């Protein structure tokens, strides 16, 4: 999973760089003098950068050992699940009685 996410994030960085070069080459970073807004959409640019950062963060997670870690956490908190279920049952009795 890590190589796939690494490849996708690398492709995203390449796409951002290519679009920036294309925009600079087309002259779209200039502010128009007639009072209209610039043609670069900053909202979509920032969303793309956030998605790229999230992909790089997800690539750092070891997905192979994630099921083992989840099972260990479930076994370690087994008593808390029983307590929560008992609390919900008693709360249901109080509410519906």
How does the SSE layout of this entry go?
Elements: H1 2-26, H2 42-59, H3 66-76, H4 78-96
What does this structure look like?
This protein is an all-alpha fold and 97 residues long. It contains four helices and no strands. It has helices at residues 2-26, 42-59, 66-76, 78-96. It starts with a helix and ends with a helix.
Structural class: mainly alpha
**If you compute it from the alpha carbons, what radius of gyration comes out, rounded to the nearest whole angstrom?**
25 Å
Low-confidence regions: none
Main pleated sheet: none
Strand proportion: under 5%
Q: Please tell me what the overall shape is.
A: elongated
Report the average pLDDT across residues. Answer: 81
Q: How do the helices and strands follow one another from N- to C-terminus? A: HHHH
- Report the strand count: 0
Distance linking N and C termini:
51 Å
Instruction: Give the helix tally.
Output: 4
Helix content: over 70%
What is this entry, summarized?
By secondary structure, this protein is mainly α. The chain has helices at residues 2-26, 42-59, 66-76, 78-96. The chain is elongated.
List keywords for this structure.
97 residues; elongated; mainly alpha; 0% strand; 75% helix
